[in-house]
Amino acid sequence: MSVLQVAVIGASGYSGEELLRLLTRHPHCNVSIITSRQHAEKPVGEVFPRFADEILCFTAPDIEQIKATCDVVFLALPHGLATEFAIPLLNSGLTVIDISADFRLNSPDKYQIYYNEPHPAPELLEQAVYGLPERYRAKIVESNLIACAGCYPTSIILPTSPLLESGLASPEKIVVSSMSGVSGAGRKVDLPYIFPECNESVRAYAPCGHRHLPEIEQELALAAGIAEVTMNFIPHLVPVNRGINSTIILDALPGATLEKIGDVLNNAYGNEKFVRVLPHGKLPDTKHITLTNVCEIGYTLDSHTGKIILVSCIDNLTKGASGQAVQNMNIRFGFDEATGLC
Amino acid sequence: MSVLQVAVIGASGYSGEELLRLLTRHPHCNVSIITSRQHAEKPVGEVFPRFADEILCFTAPDIEQIKATCDVVFLALPHGLATEFAIPLLNSGLTVIDISADFRLNSPDKYQIYYNEPHPAPELLEQAVYGLPERYRAKIVESNLIACAGCYPTSIILPTSPLLESGLASPEKIVVSSMSGVSGAGRKVDLPYIFPECNESVRAYAPCGHRHLPEIEQELALAAGIAEVTMNFIPHLVPVNRGINSTIILDALPGATLEKIGDVLNNAYGNEKFVRVLPHGKLPDTKHITLTNVCEIGYTLDSHTGKIILVSCIDNLTKGASGQAVQNMNIRFGFDEATGLC
Amino acid sequence: MSVLQVAVIGASGYSGEELLRLLTRHPHCNVSIITSRQHAEKPVGEVFPRFADEILCFTAPDIEQIKATCDVVFLALPHGLATEFAIPLLNSGLTVIDISADFRLNSPDKYQIYYNEPHPAPELLEQAVYGLPERYRAKIVESNLIACAGCYPTSIILPTSPLLESGLASPEKIVVSSMSGVSGAGRKVDLPYIFPECNESVRAYAPCGHRHLPEIEQELALAAGIAEVTMNFIPHLVPVNRGINSTIILDALPGATLEKIGDVLNNAYGNEKFVRVLPHGKLPDTKHITLTNVCEIGYTLDSHTGKIILVSCIDNLTKGASGQAVQNMNIRFGFDEATGLC
Amino acid sequence: MSVLQVAVIGASGYSGEELLRLLTRHPHCNVSIITSRQHAEKPVGEVFPRFADEILCFTAPDIEQIKATCDVVFLALPHGLATEFAIPLLNSGLTVIDISADFRLNSPDKYQIYYNEPHPAPELLEQAVYGLPERYRAKIVESNLIACAGCYPTSIILPTSPLLESGLASPEKIVVSSMSGVSGAGRKVDLPYIFPECNESVRAYAPCGHRHLPEIEQELALAAGIAEVTMNFIPHLVPVNRGINSTIILDALPGATLEKIGDVLNNAYGNEKFVRVLPHGKLPDTKHITLTNVCEIGYTLDSHTGKIILVSCIDNLTKGASGQAVQNMNIRFGFDEATGLC
What is the CATH classification number for the domain harbouring C55? Predict the structure, then answer.
């Protein structure tokens, strides 16, 4: 099988590091370009000592060189900047796999509300596919612009969507409480993220209007077959490096039984390599899935309140970012979906 | 001022250790008896090296000796066992401050449902006062049986009750997601609690029917002035030693505004030494309150969904157990409420 | 290439889990038997949820079945018990890769001193090879009894041996201070290892006579070409899951310069896949090597005191146990040494 | 008893926070001035939310105001800057308790070597007393310039000095390996100190020439009664918030026995409130002493190598900085030494 030439743009954060970890051992990829303005000309091992033995060097990004030599480009850039790179690369026929938020929302209006600026290329939104493989596999095969699902959204959309589709759960009054490890904030050098401020600390943040909210609402509305979902999503920061736990509380609809809920989840994901529905009575734990591309899902029906409770765990850097990006690449290029991910 | 003679019964766990930390520096207490069957005859410093310099020794519990020499007894015992000690001590006129769950529920039926056995002394339930000082101060002064509020319940009842009383929040469809440090499981030697199983781990547990649920529902129903509250409470274990964060999602009722919510909380707690209502825009953090008796509360109104969101933090061993017990003792015996707690 | 049939005996601890992680993705291995008396008949995924998707089941150990069906057997057993299994398996011509301490010491007398009982099979000690590939590769190829080096010893012998061999460092008055993560204590359910006792804790233990000491002294004496090394080794427990840091202080001998020290280390390990000598000025960090089979080494020469200072980091479960075991298997069976380890 | 008027200069770091925690509950102190250029005019509770309920506000430092209103000034400033403040305050007769390194070294030459600049006020060095109460109590009573001992030095000088004085241990070839929590780096916003870089990480740093080395050598030479001690001190960073463990390896001199070592330590510290010598067989643990002013010491004699091994633990922010500063103040002003520290 031929080998893809791969560029990783903006690889200086934790998602970039995780991408490199996965891509450098992927049998069908050759990472030929790794860019970082900040670290240009440094060996990758100087920034990420785990890669000290790999012969890799950061360069400043050079669009012409990427166009001339690469097949697929991963964008690990801040929102807005990702679009600047995506446009010329798409025009040259490359496949763009974007880890930023630029192409996840179908609605440029929502983008404007949550990102406080007009979408930089609304005409590309129709062309983009939402890069959540278990939901959009067929479209991912055919798209050159794959907008990888966000970390919190992945942990929420995967467990919730089948229950909305099945009619067992109501799309109204959904409440989600999530907890994320600190790598979710990026490799950000800021007072709230230094060790003594995070260790022995648990705290909620952005309880209203987190930027991942419209993405979650969009996908849950599509699953429910309705125009809008309006819900609560409250994230918390907890002192682990990696891992997201999402606890989702849904109104059960008439006819929902524990057995049916289990059937719906198992039917949806029984054949999925990267979604593990636990038997009833077991709940997920982030430590079961860190450094894997797996989303672990537990469920129950609370007869006391009539609520369906779903709990999911993912690794925010793997299934929540870079592992999912590689899974999307595997699908797009016809590789076995798990290549390089086990 | 005279000095109280104090006994601590069952002091071998983390709540017992925290009680000793607080009581040994309390100016009006003399801890004359500390019991532990398991550690009888050992110096306290052998079990809790922090107390190596104190001249204290565990003894096997001896009711007659306690009756003969003590004024007040703290029970840090498993549920059920606490009642066995409480009965004779109450009969002898001592004040019993119980950290177990035995006397928190008004209804023996609820006790039977959640503890799987009949209440061992239902006739005492009427005599007991729920030991949450900010809510029951007047009754605590007069009672010889103080059932200290549980850790999760304290973190939930304090922020929620004033909003139910005010009519700004609905007592229906309340959802609470809480996260607790591992000391909340006690000094329990069991596989799920060893370091490598808890560190780098986030997990939900007991999502339906946790034993603290009926206690929370009881107190929120009393605050709302209705017969029953039926709600969701989902706890999580996170890798910190101490601290609980509770995130509470309430339906706002007509007339609720951000300003009114703030007013209600500030009016309720503006003069409370141990409740700190944060200005809107700030959220609590367990690290702000560990090793203190403070409950920190943040609030917001989500205009997107019409929900009131409350977030609270307490130290599960201090305000959630032993600090609250000392606060109750201070009230009962007419000391300044903060004595020994700052 | 043909596929080896592999048995893992005593796989219920963290080393066993790590072995399974590595072997289940090894292209030339088929793990056909996994034994655990404690967990017999349970699916592996019930004990280690990471393996929930693998179709594996614990069995009680059955020597006849192993002899009939396997080529290579990994022993992850307590010392003493390992020998009981090794004897019949060796007699049947299988290759035994032992993670316990039973065959590491050349001297049965030393075994008796440090393990408080006579060696159970002293006649096997000559047949055994010390399973530290970078030092004993040639012998490992030819041996059916490979005694994998211990975790602390690996972290100390690798950096120190070349300097003793070179004559730049003295084998006298060696001092080593090591820090290990809690998984090094095994999956042990005991009070000192529960989360609140380890988190926010740093402590020395076994400062004299740790069981790894004679193994370290034996190998350093062999490297120095002398009969005995007598040294200090002081381990500490620190609150991380995985990782060992060893800081080694050696007397520099006449002629030792910073450049020569670097040359000796780089010459020794420049071609080694799993030893990374850092450039002078950089020091290792456990986080660079967790979940890898790499030993990272830093060095300096302290002109103030005339000491050579070496610092090394390994993952105690990978290079310190199961990764090294797999590396030894790869060597023994002629596979590329890094197979299944990157 | 009259109340001291106290100023804390440069209170924006973790030592400053710890000072405020201790001083605000000290019965004989009134903290009337708290300065921070960075935070001037902000309420202290905005910077350190634990103090939200105290009515305190940062101001820009104003020497004239301090001179006019304060009795004692704590300097929690970077080295060099501390001297600028100390000079005018001393000239006005105030007592200066300095947490910086400016006045710890007797030798301005050593200062120049380790701090890369000439000492800013060498004439003050003779006037300064080294602020380690258990060693210099008599001088502290009489001095207006108290240079509080550093954190690592305190953990090393306390256990080691009595053994050097006694002649049981040699002052030659001392080796110390220390581990510190991350608050020891200050409230520093820098990549190596963000949570994901420290958590699950153990690493050595500054293995030669750490700035605390000359301070340790100076005091150990004084204890040994010799001109110079030349030793190794190797610090490590471990993922805890607070706490230092120092493991000290000394050559035993003829006549040293386990019993004599214990006697020497117990004689030295048997009456000390803040030094706890453990019985032989027990070793210290940082978790026993965090948030206390106690130095816990364990000892053993390694008959295998003839080394005395001492292990000590302190809280780097309390006994290692601010608690010691308060202890020094108590001594200087004739209060009970433990006032405000238990």
Answer: 3.40.50.720
